[in-house]
Amino acid sequence: REVFLAGAKGIAPPFSIEPTKLEISAKQKLTGAAFSYVAATAGAGWTERANREAFYHWRIIPRALTDTCCRDLTVCLFGHHIPAPIIFAPIGLNKVYQCCGGETIPAKIAGELGLPYVMSTAASCTIENVAAANDFGAAVKNESNSIWRGPSGTHGNPKAPRFFQLYMSHDDEVTLSLLNRAWASGYDVLMFTVDAWQTGWASEAIDNGSYPFYEGDGNDVGSSDSVFIKKYGDLKTDHTKWVDRHVYHGKAHIWEKVRWLVWQWRHITGGRPVVLKGILSAHDALKALEYGCDGIVVSNHGGRQIDGETASLDVLPEIVEAVKGRMTILFDSGIRTGADVFKAVALGADAVLVGRPWVYGMAHGGERGVRHVMKSLLADLDITMTLAGYKSLKLDVTASSLRWHPTGS
Ligand code: FNR
Q1: For FMN, which residues are the binding ones (predicted)?
Q2: Which of 103, 251, 341, 387 lies 20 to 30 Å from 135, alpha-carbon distance?
Q3: CA 388–ligand 1 middle distance (angstroms)
Q4: Which pLDDT tens digit goes with each residue over 332-381?
């Protein structure tokens, strides 16, 4: 409504959020190396393309003449009511795109919109500063009338669940130090990423000399950790120590380690949830359940890790079918529009994570850009619901709201 009314007064939006145009305009704003890092895909980029194509095959079946005056986009996630099933995906090294604010920028906007924020282990700000920014955004949300409050004036808890994404070190003391710091700063869901022991073979970014991209950019999660500093030294001059040895260390963990992690997080937090990010088969989803996890993220890391692996959306239905409601199922890789969110929810996702789009927004003037991208996505989802004749995302949007069409049709 804000966008339409502004348009009627001749005020154009600050930049286009149409996916292709957004990427092109962000490219003009960022340095070549920074853009190559965000846009990076594994190999020839087939998986990233497959992520988008998978959405194309699912078509929405609208319901005519339904009363959709009051829509309900809210969902309940790990005990919190949130205004829409949209989460800020963990993205590291944000100072590359916005040197001053880094991760505090998206964390603040997530707080303002009442949406969950996932803090990355590879972040360029500290766990504590990002939590404070997220709190600040939530406080702004409570005071201001100008922020997005949900289509029918509904809004969730002032504080959405705050996730800490873990790249698990092989040094348990370092891992435990991070977990304790995260809990002390109010992160109540742990998201353990299992598909990125090392960065993928991102040909274009490698050719541009920007991948992996860590020398000199600061990784404040590691460089601010007292246990890490005591054992491995101050990182001021050598960030590769943290990233190489403790983030992308090239050595996979095994399932038994998940049991250990779940036990530790529950012990520290008094039983808060653990989610595995990077699950792409029913087999692994059931393993996550067996090893005590509370949820998974069906994700291929935005097509950045293994070229030629399955699109996330293509395996979502079989994973949902296997899990049978026993765990929370989150989804990412390729979400760009409101219709995409609708489709992922229809196929059984409890909520979706959005990655590159808000980074591209951040390239357009920091807070303002992130806010524009995420509010536009929320509006797009709301309009999709209205026009398609669906009142409640939670109750009405199901697999029967979609039909699959083969290639070429
Ligand atoms: C990521 N992603 C990611 N994932 C994670 O668990 N920890 C991290 O630190 C990062 N860092 C990161 C940096 C950049 C630049 C990108 C683009 C992605 C993956 C991210 O959380 C998510 O899975 C994908 O971005 C989702 O795909 P889309 O929405 O970008 O298509």
Answers
A1: 90-92, 120, 165, 193, 277, 299, 332-336, 355-356
A2: 341
A3: 30
A4: 999 999 999 999 999 999 999 999 999 999 999 899 999 999 999 999 99
Rounded Cα distance, 242 and 232, in Å: 9
CA of 302 to the centre of ligand 1 (A): 6
Tell me the catalytic residues: 301
Provide φ and ψ at 316, rounded to 5°: -55, -50
- Assign 3-state DSSP to the chain and report helix, strand, coil percentages, each to 5: 45, 10, 40
Q: Which residues of the chain have pLDDT under 50?
A: 145-157, 215-216
Q: Which two tokens stand for residue 57?
A: 């095959």
With the CA atoms of 35, 36, 41 and 45 taken in that order, what torsion angle do they form, in degrees rounded to the nearest 10? Answer: 100
CB neighbour list of residue 126: distance below 8 Å, 6 or more residues apart: 220, 221, 224
User: Could you give the C-alpha distances from 24 to 37, 39, 89, 360, 397, in angstroms and in order?
Assistant: 14, 10, 21, 9, 33
| DSSP helix/strand/coil, 59 | strand
In sequence order, what are the beta bridge partners of 275? Answer: 191, 295
Q: Does ligand 1 lie within 6 Å of residue 90's CB atom?
A: yes
CA triple 38-44-45, angle to 5 deg? 45
The top-level CATH class assigned to 15-404 is alpha beta
Average pLDDT, the chain: 90
Q: Where are the domains of the chain?
A: 15-404
Type of residue numbered 335: I
pTM equals 0.94
